[in-house]
Amino acid sequence: MSGDADLVAIIRTVDLTKRFEDVAAVDNLNLSIEDGEIFGLLGPNGAGKTTTVLMLSTVIKPTNGTAFVGDFDVRKNPNDVRKLIGICFQEPKLLWVSTPWDVLNWHAKVCGLATEERKRRVKQVLNDVNMWEARRKSVHGLSGGMRKRVEIAKVLIQRPKIAFVDEPTAQIDVIGKHKIWNMIRQLRDEGSTIILATNELYEADVLSDRVGIMHKGGLLVCDTPRTLKDSIPGGDIVEIHLEKEATDKVLEELKSLKEISDIAEINPKSLRVYLNNVEEVVPQIMKAFLKRNLPILSIKMSEPSLDDVFVHYTGLTIEEAQQKMIKGEADG
Amino acid sequence: MMGIFHIIEYDFRNFFRYKWWLAGLISMNLADLFVMAIVYNKMVDPELARQIMGYFSFFAPGVTILGLFASAFMIGREVNMEVRREIHYYMLSLPLSRIELALGRLLAGGLRGMMYMSPLLLTTFAFLGIPSPFQLLIILAALFLLAMGISGLSIAIAVSTSSFEKFVTARGLVYYVLFFCSTIFYPLSLIQSLGEEGIMPQPLVTLAAINPLSNGADIIRSFLLGIPAFTLDMVMNLALFSALFATTAIFAYMKIIQRT
Predict the structure, then answer these.
(1) Which of A54, A259, A268, A295 is deepest in the core (most CB within 10 A)?
(2) What is the pLDDT, as a whole number, of residue A106?
């Protein structure tokens, strides 16, 4: 489950567990996050992502096991851990009597930024997240999206060694999402390690260097989005429409390719091929048809999503898992 | 150490965002003094009024303590609100040690009480006379101890109560017990005589005697009015109250808040 041994782990959990009465919110989590990567913690609501983030940031104590953040044990050296981290919480943590300027200025001060640098960064980030005009408004009067922008701004101003961002673009419009994704990438490029907790598949896919998929408090699988998607046997799908009917010989040749797991005939002139490594295999497929004088009219390719990866490991889509979790909570 | 100052700054900023509400509260306290106390001055038994140097003079230190208590207790309301809205997660994630965080909240609560109380204390001095520098020092030290104890008490209640309703109920109980079983409104001699007559239950008489609010008000009276006589026990009692609740608050804040 962990990353390559020669890469430097900046976070390492050892049987990390958090129980709330009889329920294990996080159950024996063993995971390794490398220095300088964006690590996506993906899973439905209730999977244990936020609880993991809260334990790694020393906000709550583990019931069992431990975690090492930087060189420090979250149980033994929580004060040292907190000097390395910054958090963008899932629900913005803003006192309703404050203004965005006051919230961010005070946050930057506590994080040790000198006066001039602090003012410069607060101004710059407020501009970057389109909150400069609203900087003197009470946070009580801000929309959910604006509050979330202030929340992410805390981390962007702080530029911590390790940044936890919990659903950073929830309630934010599409243009804002892309802007924040770019700012998160920039934070990574400037040397921060980012732990992105999200239930948005696309966000995890486009932003993460590696993804750990969580379900029911445990880690199902962990790797790069590409590798995870390729790990589903026959995960890629290619639909081929031919000018003539496909012959048995060409079908046999295709089936002999190790990346192809199955071929379904939609009709004699249309095939659906289930395979892996679609980019590498499609040229071979085309070559096989052209060699036998079977012209291709069209090719349609589709890749598996991280949702397909989740389905592969759990038998449920993330949405189904989420609904199951809500139903479980409602049933008590 | 810097972390403590940051937390104090945070709590003072929050305090002054309620500036109009605070101005309203101070006005109400002054109205208590200039309306209620002057009216009561005419209502109380002339012999008792003579003993206590007039009800206005007697009540002025009491109203100062009332203001100190109410404002120092406000920190508990904010801590409770933070816990309910999970803002304490943010506080716990900051690069501060738990002891800095807890001490900062405690000191901020106490210092805010001192600041709120100062116009009331100055009003008391204006009408009852200015104490000597040494007496002023003792008064301020005693009031600071009292403010810290109240701040600690409110924080301990705030983190121990899971809902706002429970917090408000506990706060109301503490207000009534400490306000009315004290010498804020009436002298201890009167309470004791009511106890001897069987009108006031004896435990309440004892509570009024050891109540830190009684000690706070009586220390001011002893220097400005000469009654009751100042004793070191008054300060020791306040120090004990302050130490007890400050320690409880720090322990509760550090331990309970991380479990929520």
Answers:
(1) A54
(2) 94
